[in-house]
Write a structure and sequence with these properties.
Glycosyltransferase, 622 residues, globular, mainly alpha
Length: 622
Amino acid sequence: MDMKRIRARIDAMTEELIHQQSQDGAWRMCFDSGTMTDSYLIILLRLLGRADERLIHMLAARIASKQEENGAWKVYPDESEGNLDATSEAYFALLYAGYYYEADPRMVRAKQFILKRGGLSEVRSLLTQVMFSATGQAEWPRMLRIPLEAFFSDLGIGLDLFSLSGHARVHLVPTIIMANKQFVRKTSTMPELYQLFVNDSRKFSNDTTWISALNEFISSLPLSSLLPPSSSTSYEKAEAFMFDRLEPNGTLLTFSTATILMILSLLSLGYSTDSTAVNRLLAGILSVMCVDRPHLQVASAEVWDTSMLTYALREAGASPSMPALEKAGVYLLARQQVRLGDWTRRLPNTPAGGWGFSNVNTLYPDVDDSAAVLRAIRPYTTEANGLHANWQRGLNWVLAMRNEDGGWPAFEREGNQLPASFFTFEGSSDISTDPSTVDLTGRVLGFLGDELDMTIGHRWLDDSVQWVLSQQMRDGSWYGRWGIAYTHGTGAAIKGMTAVGVPDDHPAIQKGIKWLLSIQNDDGGWGESCLSDKVKHYVPLHASTPSQTAWALDALIAVYAKPNAAMERGVEALLQSLERRDWTYTYPTGAALPGSVYVHYPSNNYIWPLLTLSSILKKYGT
């Protein structure tokens, strides 16, 4: 390996990052989650009668630019043919925008693709179905007509709203409000999509779970039954639930998608389109628009990007006293959370102290961001400056979040699993609960080993390692929930376990390394398709991406005392991909909603390669 070339690439990336830093110390790298949010924003603006034509035109142009030759839209580049839900949303949004028409060749092709896939009745995403139901294009799914009393009254049927993940809750509550109200809002310019159903029914074909049957049974009972229809009190409680979880910028728990649903639910409750509440929420949605292009982010990623880039730059040789890193430290320290969110229900005696994903997150801390920030700010939190207590409070929060199985979840500990057939929306089993995950647990173990010198031999840590070992697949890989997918999980598992002292020759680690070597591409790199995340087994991309190559190399570096041929080929592939910057540079390697939403984080092309190349220099450079 050419160490001078590696050093030159590190220096070039460092210079780029310093140039990109904001004045307040943060890095603001707009991440791309496809066309879903852009489509929803157009629909919302038209429903509200907001004539922001410049924004609508730009959003529509961006959506149109993503269309494939066959008329479809995809949620990741190598998706077979296209995605029905994304295509249906884009088709509706472009027609509603008013700049594209049914007779346009591109719209004709889109319609043909939708019908070929079975029509609108076959869409599977919760959000897609809600948008079509709320605009009167389809019937509200029976499985969503759960009386609010089930969640917001002692007369419920045992459905615990707080057994769901926080992100599921804030999307589900406004949805159930609308479903109970059978809310529909139309405007004079809204297109009608009845021709996109292949038969006379406007029902969704997956609306067949036991929840649907239960709701039908409940609706047939007299009002004096155990579970009455949603009452005015339950609507008031549901409304309060949403308002209590607004962030300072006006978003519902920082999610633009949840905030869009909240606006629609308020309209169903009688709010006017120009009410103060609706205006506040709309301003919150617009606050997470990208500044460099017309794209609505699901949420902004300032805290994650800033903490991880600060750590990566320091590992790359930047001094903690560098002004850029000091500014970043000040920025991150100011965003430690002091409010008690829903997480405290399962940690009632734990003070707040974690960090969230975005700039305005004050209620929804997560383990991954908190551990990342603790790494980043450690040089700036000393006894001398009085800030060590802040660092310790953050550490205590992360440690307290560990589940009884030994692993770490993202947002809330000890979440209950829902029945497999509770909802049949795309990815519902992954998004509705927040169990321990291998990738987050691996990163926490890495943090504890690298920063605190913690090692196996203590039962508490041994239990966490044993949980990771128990999650290994038969082929030697591990699944990563928040990155794509088995490459991500395997790299995190091996790096985390070796950081706390699991020996390199442990059979599970050797099996994981063997698996990684077996999927190495001919060019020396690694690349995995987003399809892996949906089908839950490894699917090759047949090309190499920077972040996935870095994740695989991290595992090899952790295990091998000396560079070998596979590593040398991997480093060469990584350097070339960083220089080439073709489509693999923007391939989405972040997982959000399996099967529906995948994310390209621009920071991934800096964070992980910088950490990997820096590890190469430190371990093998001399």
